[in-house]
Structures are given as C-alpha cells and as structure tokens.
Design brief:
Blueprint (H helix, E strand, L loop, with lengths): L5 E5 L8 H11 L6 E5 L1 H10 L4 H10 L2 H4 L1 E2 L5 E4 L1 H11 L11 E7 L5 E4 L4 H8 L4 E3 L2 E3 L2 E5 L9 H5 L4 E5 L14 H20 L5 E3 L14 H14 L1 H11 L4 H5 L15 H10 L10
Helix pairs in contact: 1-3, 1-9, 2-6, 5-6
Length: 302
Amino acid sequence: MARKRIGLALSGGVAKGLAHIGVVKGLLELGVPIDCVAGTSSGSLVGALVAAGVPPEKMAELAKRTRWRDLVRPVVPREGLLDSGPMERILRRHLGDRNIEDLALPYAAVAADLETGREVVITSGPVARAVRASCAVPGFFTPVKVDGRLLVDGGVCNNIPTHVPRELGADLVIAVDLSGALGKGLSSRNIFGILLRTFEIMQHEKRAIEAKGADVLIRPRVEGLGLVNLDAVDAYIEAGWEAVMAQRDALADLMEKARGRTLLDYLNPLNWFRAGTARPGTGAVQRRWAADTERPSAGGTG
C-alpha cells in the first residue's frame, strides 16, 4: 500500500514568512516528505520556492540580498500605497516564466476576491503573478488582476489554508501559524503602523478556527521580530527551525500514520504495539520512507 501524502500549509505574516524557510529546513532534516504545498501571502512566496525545488539554503541567500526597495515602489495612493510589481519581476528572474502547472510539486496560492469577498485558490497560471496577488496586503499594496478578478492578500479570508493541501491531494497536513501572541501597542503611529496592526489583529482572531484542519501545527516564536524587519533573516529562520524540532515527536507520529502498510504488517501482532514509536532521523524510518515513497518529494528536488 502506498504511503499517505503529506501537504504543507504556510500562513502569511509579511516578513515573518521568512520563518517558513527554517520550517522547511527542519522538515527536510527530519526526513519529512513534502508532497504538495499551499500558502497565503508570504507563505505563498516561500511555498512557490519549495514547489519549484529551491533548497532552503538558496532561499536564505536570496532573502539576505533582498530589501523592501527591491520588492515595491511608491505609487499615487488610489488603490494602495505601494506597487509590488518589482517583487513579481524578482520571482520571474529566479523561477522564470513558469506556470504553476510546471512546478515540481502541486502548489496553490491563496488570495481574496475584492468584489465577491470570497477566497480564491490559484492552482494554474503564472507563478509570480499568483504570489503577487496572494501578497497584496490591502491598503499597502495595490490589488492584482488575475483572470479578470481583482485580488488581494489571502489572509483577508484564510491566513492558515489547511484545507487547500487536501484539495491538492494531501491526506495529512502540516500547518505553520506565524500569528503568535498578539502583544500590545503599535510598532509606529503612522499609516503603515496602523494598517499593519489592524491586519495583525484580524489574523490573530481567526487563527484558532483556521488551524483546526491541521494534523500537526507548527508555531514559530516570531513575536518579537516584527512584521517588516528584513534584517532579521537569520533570526526568523532559526525560529522556524526550532519550532519544527519542538514538534519532532508529533511529526514522527505523522510519518508513522503516513507510512504505507501491507496486509502482512496488519497481521503481525508485533506491529500492533509499534504505531507512533518511530522517530525521525533513525535509520529504520529513513529506510521505510525510501521503500514507501512513490513520487519525488521536496527533499529530492534540491
């Protein structure tokens, strides 16, 4: 029997999304396969790189070279304060003009339709455009047109898209929630600080409901790092990696649930008492995954 497929759901969080790099790094170190990935906002950006087979080390290098001036440019404030076209161009430079259908893994970017108020799950078309739409924080960035629809940041509707990997074929879902503790006070008392704080409050209030669909929930401790601090790349990545290691037992249990079993496995009484006892990183677990895996995971694309 083939093993169950494991999907990854990456939440938004502006610069906090850099913690997803550490999460992916930790999962690959533990031998957890990633069969599909869905992301909201900054989670869609890292998710696209995962689906394209970019290793975490390369993601970190790219993040350290990137500043806000590389990602956005000011515009006349009609639909937003900033245009994220430069971010789309950077993604095209690194991923090419690939469509989502061309990626190594099934992938989806989650956005919100301004006209209908509904969640939009983008599973086809240009990768860079989909990511830009998913990252278009309303008020900050101008909305993005995709297939005739005016789209904004998916966090408006669903910041932790746990149901989307299942729609992509996952049987089990690992979700990453970057909302953390809400804390008190504004980072700054200007329009940027007020907009960011409003969005942060909105996402925090919904997180318990959105996270219910996860089989394993990973919550990096990124509260003190800020929402827009692109100088804290290493700290974000470390927080993501540490959060994975804190959940290594839960991830081992997930891998055991995912493991394909034969009829002889079920008939062997010794196996009745072994479920959930294996731990990632052991030779036995590594060998089982090698035998059970039918298709390449993210760990095999780097």
